[in-house]
Amino acid sequence: xxxxxxxxxxxxxxxxxxxxxxxxxxxxxxxxxxxxxxxxxxxxxxxxxxxxxxxxxxxxxxxxxxxxxxxxxxxxxxxxxxxxxxxxxxxxxxxxxxxxxxxxxxxxxxxxxxxxxxxxxxxxxxxxxxxxxxxxxxxxxxxxxxxxxxxxxxxxxxxxxxxxxxxxxxxxxxxxxxxxxxxxxxxxxxxxxxxxxxxxxxxxxxxxxxxxxxxxxxxxxxxxxxxxxxxxxxxxxxxxxxxxxxxxxxxxxxxxxxxxxxxxxxxxxxxxxxxxxxxxxxxxxxxxxxxxxxxxxxxxxxxxxxxxxxxxxxxxxxxxxxxxxxxxxxxxxxxxxxxxxxxxxxxxxxxxxxxxxxxxxxxxxxxxxxxxxxxxxxxxxxxxxxxxxxxxxxxxxxxxxxxxxxxxxxxxxxxxxxxxxxxxxxxxxxxxxxxxxxxxxxxxxxxxxxxxxxxxxxxxxxxxxxxxxxxxxxxxxxxxxxxxxxxxxxxxxxxxxxxxxxxxxxxxxxxxxxxxxxxxxxxxxxxxxxxxxxxxxxxxxxxxxxxxxxxxxxxxxxxxxxxxxxxxxxxxxxxxxxxxxxxxxxxxxxxxxxxxxxxxxxxxxxxxxxxxxxxxxxxxxxxxxxxxxxxxxxxxxxxxxxxxxxxxxxxxxxxxxxxxxxxxxxxxxxxxxxxxxxxxxxxxxxxxxxxxxxxxxxxxxxxxxxxxxxxxxxxxxxxxxxxxxxxxxxxxxxxxxxxxxxxxxxxxxxxxxxxxxxxxxxxxxxxxxxxxxxxxxxxxxxxxxxxxxxxxxxxxxxxxxxxxxxxxxx
Length: 810
Description:
Blueprint: E1 3-5, E2 12-15, E3 25-28, E4 34-37, E5 45-48, E6 51-52, H1 59-64, E7 70-75, E8 79-82, E9 90-96, E10 99-106, E11 111-118, E12 126-135, E13 141-151, H2 163-167, E14 172-174, E15 178-181, E16 185-186, E17 193-194, E18 198-205, E19 213-217, H3 218-222, H4 232-235, E20 253-258, E21 262-264, E22 269-279, H5 286-290, H6 296-313, E23 318-320, H7 324-343, E24 358-359, H8 360-365, H9 367-373, H10 375-385, E25 398-399, E26 406-407, H11 422-435, E27 444-446, E28 453-455, H12 456-465, E29 496-497, H13 498-517, H14 522-542, E30 544-546, E31 552-554, E32 557-558, H15 578-586, H16 591-604, E33 606-607, E34 612-613, E35 642-643, H17 644-656, H18 660-675, H19 677-680, E36 687-690, E37 696-699, H20 704-716, E38 719-722, E39 725-728, E40 742-749, E41 752-759, E42 770-776, E43 779-780, H21 789-795, E44 802-809
Parallel strand pairs: 41-44
Antiparallel strand pairs: 1-2, 2-9, 3-4, 4-5, 5-6, 7-8, 7-13, 9-10, 10-11, 11-12, 12-22, 13-20, 13-21, 14-15, 15-18, 16-17, 18-22, 19-20, 23-40, 24-25, 25-26, 27-28, 29-32, 30-31, 33-34, 35-36, 36-37, 38-39, 40-41, 42-43, 42-44
């Protein structure tokens, strides 16, 4: 494997990861600093699209760019070494929850370099980097170190547009320990403004001594003939500057801090500390910020705080089984929803929405995990989110950083994704079942782009009734700008999404049942059911297709010509995974149909070599009547990749309908593709998708992580609420119990921390075992299930871990 775990917290080590291109790791804090870092310290540091400390980099740049966090070392009589990215005999990355250590060894030069990078969990938007240089020879080494971290200090939009012109705005200031870049203006041809943001790099050695001097501009550092791979300032060991000259202003900037020449004895080390930061408030001093981190002791304390903070963040879910690698991998998946809340869908090298922000689906799906961990916090967030719904049932598509901040669209493109109305109710329904808080349905919220206020229930009804005003010729909701698959975006006029018509129908049945339980108006309940059953019968009867091989599955779409997409075709059978998942999840598919769907999926979508389910079969043509996805090469992204999000929802749907062995096979296939790091080439976690080579793509920022955690808790371990009452319904297969024949999970229910352990002494399989006894904190629980909320709260403690032991037998 590329990496191996070192402990149950998910700390891992990777040997020679610099040989893997496209590999990166996230660093961030909740104050808003967002970083990416590679095994050669490439990656960028920013706050948002308009505020980059370092040069913006995409995945293709990571291997090919000279822009990185670097420390050059001039070694007398030996030569020059780029410690972060130069020649090495060995490199090692050790990393844990948002901290990154890189060790690089160059025997010829006689040095080992150890870099530690992290973003402190404070109100400072800075990244801390320490570098320890160790003499690995048997003779003293005379070294002269110089940092080399290019400072960009502006919007990513300026990377090509007015790159030179915006450098003319740069103003530099040299302080005792570093360089401050503060451009005079924020360049924007629509509205230039005076800049208030400072970009800075400060540094010192382990004893607090400042640099000996600086090379603050790129021309001074690289020289006329040199470049970042062979900078004159290092190779010629030039004398640094101690003050800013007028000629240095208006140039591209670099954090090149020269430290005094040192003699390092054999086996001895010297350490340097760097603080790289952005300060948006011009009343705050970067120098004062640096004073918080200008010693090894201060940095060590901050790193300890960092580790504790992020480990607490992932404490929401922890599985303990015999498969320790799975348990530890799951900890990284649990972190991913937090990362997406911080990064949105952007700001890591495989950025998706390049200009930042989360989309409408992301907003609701990322809440699913929070609902389980902290339902009280989720309550207000839910209400706030409904402010993004318009009175016509459509919604804003991009979410701002502030509460109730919504943006109509991305890149000034007005589009409606027809599936958007589905997700708010799915999230709200989970919240109501986890908490029993049905009153939330009648809390009032505003509408987007309107002064009107209404109940949450009216928002939900509005979203579910809107598609009935836009029905296609076959009786299904129009595809509009796309559904869950954004790549199906070229069938606006005549395309229809059968699959999400099924999901709307399923939602309406769920909503009707919920309203019936709280004695709501029968007229509304009956109307919801009438509409839902009409759609369900149409889909079951008219969209179930049999192909020439005898296999059966649902047609999920009609294209812009009004032609059925799936089934037999001259170029081969066409089938989509999405077209099957949502009929299963929504209850539209019967049990017999689910059984046949899975058989068909194994025939047409299962890849025998990579052992995973593809998103669709190869249509073998560009398909403009349906969407851009079919212009992509087959096996990439929305055209036939192993799409984690849909695979996880496939597993969830199968578990929900009690097809447990099938659901386990799907989940296991995803995990196995991740852990096969010779192919996946990613650090622990779940990528957006795997391509046809089995390579993980778009790592970390994917909604599939939330759905996987939700599936593990509510379906696999079967811990979920029914109007606030606890239901325990395990759906574990015998392989998951291992030799110890027990398995446990730490999670939360109604705000109480619980550790639930299933005991299966006879090694029984799902479908054979049943619950024979439940003990809560060693006291027998009532046999009634679901367990009344009052009873659960009486038997558990608010502040401590509560032990729930569940015994399985025949």
